[in-house]
Amino acid sequence: MLRTFRIGGIHPPENKLSAGKKITVLAAPKQVVIPLGQHIGAPAQAVVQKGDAVKVGTLIAKAGGFVSANIHSSVSGKVNKIDNALDASGYKRPAIFIDVDGDEWEETIDRSDTLVKECSLSAKEIVAKIAQAGIVGMGGATFPTQVKLTPPPGNKADIIIINAVECEPYLTADHSLIMEKAEQILVGTTLLMKAVDVNRAVIGIENNKPDAIALLQKLAGNYKGIEIMPLKMKYPQGGEKQLIDAVANRQVKSGALPISEGAIVQNVGTVYAVYEAVQKNKPLFERVVTVTGKSVANPSNLLVRIGTPVNALIDAAGGIPEDTGKIINGGPMMGKALMSTDIPVTKGSSGILILTRKESERKPVNECIRCTKCIQVCPMGLNPTLLMNTTEFKNWELAEKNHITDCIECGSCVYTCPAYRPLLDYIRSGKGTVMNIIRTRKATK
Prior knowledge:
Blueprint: E1 23-25, E2 31-35, E3 45-46, E4 53-54, E5 59-62, E6 71-72, E7 77-86, E8 92-100, H1 123-132, H2 145-148, E9 159-163, H3 173-196, E10 201-206, H4 210-220, E11 226-231, H5 240-248, E12 263-267, H6 268-280, E13 286-292, E14 300-305, H7 310-316, E15 324-329, E16 336-337, E17 351-356, H8 357-360, H9 373-377, H10 384-392, H11 396-401, H12 412-416, H13 423-443
Parallel strand pairs: 1-14, 9-10, 9-12, 10-11, 13-17
Antiparallel strand pairs: 2-8, 3-5, 4-7, 5-6, 7-8, 13-14, 15-16, 15-17
């Protein structure tokens, strides 16, 4: 029997319209806009100035703290300016504007397709190369990878879990990457195992990807300690805590990190980036992005340079359909609507979803009928109705007491609510407020 996580979960339609589509390389635009804050933690600090010449892979911004990440140029050309630019949330943030001129790469990058399996580097040296390359979690969380690989004192990992679940409807970027770069992903997994000194790794993947499962199982026999584990389809199985429960039968306590249960989770795209950084000296400056939607002419999986405007991706997939209602950054469950298609692709951009007007219409909100469906499907065991009410009435003490900060913002509650209540909108707002209250309380102690 296939495994899955124990608490809550839903089964939204898959709509994997771009499944089976090969990865297409998108040409670099005339200008890229590379944000300095495209990861969790402190924004990176620019190390270039207006007029500087850069190559593909040139370091243009250094990590701004322990929890931060380096940023590299995705193109060759000249720095036009360092100025504010709109991000996916609609706020203006510092970014580096680079005018593209040719496609000259840093000479240290190995651009060959030759698979490199052997690695003589120490664990410390592997982590250092990952940090130098600016790798972050590419499943959407964008947590700096080198920080995950250096657990706090007293914590030790005994398992690496590779997240190849891709449970979000519509998205197929990870699936396509596995089909084209499976062996590189397996090598990347061995590098992560060496980096944290564990002898077991499990690649968790939902059973709606039989071709990817078969390919990984065929190749994994040549890599000691790596297991391929097909999982039952259930959203949001790609959440760290849900995946740890499904794969290792361990439940991470409220407020605790995965390392507390001896697990480190890395997205499959991150693992591939680790392979490229350690074995090919290639920084993270491009990624695979799914562009999809029921009215999209050519749903695609595109290899895109960081800083490319979203409108270039949409044009490559056939343009904006006439019946477009919303354009989502990410998938339909956890993604957020874009204010503009001029915003740039970042390290955390996994998909661009174009919804029709009919799909994007919100239905009239009704009173809660106390059906408890939202409680039944919450993968964190929370009471979404109560948390919405605590936010609405600004009862922050009650919200904190009922673990509002544990919400992973998966949207399962909204999906199942028969009254169409905007549960997540309120909870997300309340969660942010409570987290600020907690930070202020800690700072004043």
